[in-house]
Amino acid sequence: WSPAARPAMFRLRHSALLWPLAVLLELAGSIKVNVTIGPKEKKCYGEQLARTELLVAEFEAFDRKKVSMAVTSPSATVYTEHERDKAKTAFTTSEAGAHWVCLTNEEAEHIEVQVSMLAGPEAKDYSQVAKKEHLEETQISLRRVEEALANYHSNVLYMRRREERLRQTNDSTAFRVISFCLFNVCLMIGVGGWQMLYFKRFFRSKKII
After folding, report:
1. Is 38 left (phi over 0), alpha (psi -120 to 50) or beta?
2. Sign of CA pseudo-dihedral 31, 32, 34, 37
3. How would DSSP label each residue in the chain?
4. How many Cα atoms sit within 13 Å of 11 on the Cβ side?
5. Closest by alpha carbon to 116, among 27, 22, 50?
6. What percentage of the chain exceeds 90 in pLDDT?
7. How many degrees, rounded to 5, is the angle at CA 121 between CA 144 and CA 151?
8. Is it the case that residue 21 has pLDDT exceeding 50?
9. pLDDT digit string (tens) for 174-196?
10. pTM above 0.70, yes or no
11. Could you report the per-residue pLDDT of 52-91, keeping only the tens digit for each?
12. Pairing mode, if any, of strands 30-37 and 111-119?
């Protein structure tokens, strides 16, 4: 290859190597399915998200039928839309935990809906980033991988903190159970000793022993 063609080949090879990695890292934070919701039925889809993570939730009902949508965080309802044929919302999470997109069919017939829930780098429009910052394809791929890895790292840290809290809760519960068992044993020994002394004095007072 000529020296002028080498940089292009370098970018092409690196782009081919980085693209599968970016896809694998981002698929964990994306949901896009077609579902059928029965009459008076509610269906929910959720993801475990870290704090300050971008989330884009969207739905579109076929045949322009009406569906209600609600997006909830672990402690509050973030977004609601009632009786719409399509809706979309995007926000940055303020707390870590499970975030849910729930669709409710208030009609008396089945409704087919396409629902998508994109989180992290998957929710970001990198074409706009490329235009704004004048980035090449390889640089965009690197940016996608970098942000996907940062998002993955945040999720790992969240899971570690959650595991630590669960471990502390389990340790506290185990300590309380052991303490309660020891208290019961001491109580039974104390009651048994008191009963022995009581019956011994009773039998002596009756001159039985």
Report:
1. beta
2. positive
3. --TTTHHHHHHHHHHHHHHHHHHHHHHTTEEEEEEEE-TT-EEEEEEEE-TT-EEEEEEEEGGG--EEEEEE-SSSEEEEEEEESEEEEEEE-SS-EEEEEEEE--SSS-EEEEEEEEEGGGGS-HHHHHHHHT--HHHHHHHHHHHHHHHHHHHHHHHHHHHHHHHHHHHHHHHHHHHHHHHHHHHHHHHHHHHHHHHHHHHHHTT--
4. 11
5. 27
6. 38
7. 95
8. no
9. 999 999 999 999 999 999 999 88
10. no
11. 888 899 999 998 899 999 999 998 999 999 999 999 999 9
12. antiparallel
Tokens 């001491």 belong to residue: 186
Residue reference for tokens 């704090």: 51
- Token pair of 168, please? 């502390």
Bridge partners (DSSP) of residue 68 are: 104
* Type of residue found at 122: E
